[in-house]
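Students often ask why inverse folding is considered easier than folding. One informal answer: many sequences map to the same fold, so there is more than one right answer. In these notes we will look at a single instance of the problem. The structure comes first.
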């Protein structure tokens, strides 16, 4: 029997490990990954933009896997409104024109290199070294993707740091290139700050936020009331197998660990947790969104995220004021410096359907989204391995009619909610 021998650097080895990196990345279990929905375009929409059907907060867009280019366009068709034409009135020439709003997502190549060791390390054999490197990269890329999604959705990086953060601070010179697409501050009509028992629209309230302005279940009631009152609210989240999707609308609130901990101190904790159990029972099989630390209140599924977009007292962040709502021109806003050393402001995210798009291209080395390369150097005594991916993330934003005929830039599927938290 002939011995199977896959040489170092062979095309077969490259493709095997490229596929493994893709599989391990897409299956990573983080709160952000569980928000991803499948691409299910209709035939008509596939020809226009390849958008996904309404469903989960994050959608994948694979157009650039098949077509050349580094940008994919998403288009929104405005809902028609106005009075009907009655009786025998002349209807010719009185049709409503279709109105579109569009945005582009750009993709780029992201890479991470690991030095797998020198001559003495080879005692473990190069296959084991590859497995070790693959495990490291398979942990790194899900973290990078989840953090990129979080920062785009929040419209800010914040100042929280740690060894697990792959995204640099917003002040870093390479921040823009790492994020690929511009990070846009929340639009005025999609940004609220906790202010006592109420929610104040716009980020200017951050200048006077107090340590007592903490997120409570009553604020979730306030958010739900606002959703019900909006002419064009966030589209509810719809998941496969949800038998109550049509009768019981649901949105997802991605809470920071501190925000979630504060909600757990409420007197209605038992109902908060039981509501999630009751809603999960409507699914054919238990959806991963309901696993882990979750609660539910007034149609809003609250999920504890792994990390936070955090602002310390005196930090500056970009906002859109009411005066600039129609242009989405950003300005700097300083967080109340008198908030106190033991407190910070953290940003929770209320998510509806199609809040974020992730566009994928293909790497040259593998022909799929992720690639694996290896490089021997120092007279083939040392091994470097590299993982790479081609994609781009971007928060969906369209110009939407505000009811008066004026189109206003609007974050399509996410509302930012800032609150004070004890550290």
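Output (designed amino acids):
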């Amino acid at each position: 029997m002939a011995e199977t021998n896959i040489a170092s650097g062979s095309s077969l080895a490259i493709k095997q490990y490229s596929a493994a990196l893709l599989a391990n990345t897409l299956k990573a279990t983080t709160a952000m990954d569980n928000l991803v929905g499948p691409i299910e375009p209709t035939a008509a929409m596939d020809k226009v933009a390849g958008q996904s059907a309404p469903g989960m907060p994050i959608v994948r867009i694979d157009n650039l896997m098949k077509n050349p280019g580094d940008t994919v366009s998403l288009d929104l068709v405005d809902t028609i409104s106005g009075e009907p034409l009655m009786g025998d009135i002349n209807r010719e020439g009185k049709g409503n024109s279709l109105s579109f709003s569009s945005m582009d997502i750009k993709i780029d190549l992201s890479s991470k290199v690991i030095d797998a060791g020198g001559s003495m390390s080879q005692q473990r054999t190069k296959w084991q070294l590859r497995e070790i490197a693959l495990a490291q990269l398979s942990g790194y890329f899900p973290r990078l993707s989840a953090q990129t999604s979080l920062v785009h959705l929040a419209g800010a990086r914040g100042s929280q740091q740690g060894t697990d953060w792959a995204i640099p601070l917003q002040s870093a010179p390479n921040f823009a290139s790492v994020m690929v697409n511009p990070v846009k501050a929340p639009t005025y009509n999609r940004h609220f700050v906790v202010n006592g028992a109420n929610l104040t629209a716009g980020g200017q309230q951050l200048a006077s936020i107090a340590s007592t302005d903490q997120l409570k279940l009553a604020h979730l009631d306030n958010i739900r009331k606002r959703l019900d009152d909006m002419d064009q609210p966030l589209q509810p989240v719809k998941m496969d197998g949800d038998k109550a999707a049509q009768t019981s609308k649901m949105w997802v609130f991605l809470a920071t660990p501190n925000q979630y901990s504060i909600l757990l101190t409420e007197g209605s904790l038992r109902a908060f947790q039981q509501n999630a159990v009751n809603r999960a029972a409507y699914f054919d099989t238990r959806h991963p969104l309901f696993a882990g630390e979750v609660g539910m209140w007034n149609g809003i599924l609250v999920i504890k995220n792994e990390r936070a977009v955090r602002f310390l007292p005196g930090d500056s962040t970009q906002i859109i004021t009411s005066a600039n709502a129609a242009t989405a021109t950003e300005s700097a806003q300083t967080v109340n410096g008198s908030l106190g050393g033991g407190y910070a402001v953290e940003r929770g995210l209320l998510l509806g359907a199609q809040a974020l798009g992730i566009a994928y291209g293909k790497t040259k080395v593998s022909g799929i989204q992720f690639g694996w390369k290896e490089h021997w150097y120092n007279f083939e005594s040392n091994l470097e391995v590299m993982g790479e991916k081609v994609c781009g993330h971007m928060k969906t934003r369209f110009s939407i009619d505000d009811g008066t005929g004026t189109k206003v830039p609007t974050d399509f599927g996410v509302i930012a909610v800032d609150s004070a938290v004890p550290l």
